Amino acid sequence: MDNRAIKLAVLETIERFDTIVISRHIRPDGDAVGSTMGLARVLRDTYPSKKIYLTDEDFSDYLAFCGGEDEVPEEVYRDALLIVIDTGTRNRISNSRYALAKYCVKIDHHIEADPYGDLNWVEDFRSSACEMIADFCVGFRDRLKISKEAATFIYMGMVTDSGRFRFEGVTGETMRLAGAMLDYGVDCETLFANLYSEEFASFKLKSYVYDHIRITKNGVAYLYMDAEAQERFQLTLEAASSFVSELSDIRGSLIWIAFIDNLEKQNIRVRLRSRFLGINDLAIRHHGGGHNMAAGATVFSKQEMEELIAEADALLGEYKATHEGWL
Fold it and tell me: Could you tell me where the beta strands, DSSP code E, fall in 160-278?
């Protein structure tokens, strides 16, 4: 099916079910939260007689201002449609009961590695899952109700997953769809204050981060946020992970990585970002994946962390040796 036919099939599937459960990926980011909460709001407004649930077994303090999720009894799944958004593989679904649903629709913008849905709508050229939800809502605006609240959630995900419209994948269509959401009255000043304003103590934390950035021979910038640092600065796992962005503007560094101790799961969370060259294959080799230039992974020891750094350094060294014009 072409994209228009797939989107129509998604809408017709939604209309066929009286009960819908919406889920996203573990460790939800702005795109995961925005896409699921935005679609949930649209469906609740459009189909008030349907039972629409939004469930998540994980949590993000960073996005707590968006609101919470629903408790979904197990028996609900028997006749329910499950919509999973922004989640490339089934092992990253933040819903341990997902397999109980009668039918599953996958909506995602990651490189397809696990087509787990009964109906899969995947557009890996999109800058965010929220861009897909915006396209879906605008494309069927004659049948769907889009409120200011829904548009705000969707716009939030578009902003955060695109790095405020700076990352690869942002196109004219991205901006047109973002503009369409703004037309519903999104309060950008309040939204950006919630997303980006920081406590005074965070500036001391940034000082610590800058002091602990390390650079490999070929220019891989990396940061290790151990458990002691997280406790000292009272950081959640999500907040500690966000500091990968602080490494992005070092000239000559085209790959940057944040390693974050996760004592609860006895592993080290990894966030990888790059400019010009892809790092998704590197992430896949270390229990992860994502986008070509933005991915996540997990390592299980300091030794594996060093191995990943060495592999990234070799990858960047090869790129610099075979390409001209990089900054």
Answer: 214-215, 220-225, 255-262, 267-274
Query: What's the CA gap between 146 and 38, in Å, rounded?
Result: 9
- Among candidate residues 135, 183, 187, 124, the one with its CA nearest the CA of residue 156: 187
Q: What is the mean pLDDT of the chain?
A: 91
Residues 6+ apart with CB under 8 A from 108: 84, 85, 86, 87, 88, 120, 121, 122, 129
Those residues with Cβ within 8 angstroms of residue 105's Cβ, 6 or more apart along the chain or in another chain: 10, 13, 14, 81, 82, 83, 84, 117, 118, 119, 120, 121
In this prediction, residue 74 has a pLDDT band, given cuts at 50, 70 and 90, of confident
Q: Which residues contact 250 (CB under 8 A, 6 or more apart)?
A: 213, 215, 219, 221, 256
Domains of the chain: 3-195 (3.90.1640.10), 201-322 (3.10.310.30)
Q: What is the pLDDT of residues 41-72, one digit of tens each?
A: 999 999 999 999 998 766 666 566 667 677 78
Tell me: the pLDDT tens digits for 263-292? 888 999 999 999 999 999 999 999 998 888
Locate 202 and state its tokens: 């965070």
Q: With the CA atoms of 26, 28, 34 and 40 taken in that order, what torsion angle do they form, in degrees rounded to the nearest 10?
A: 30
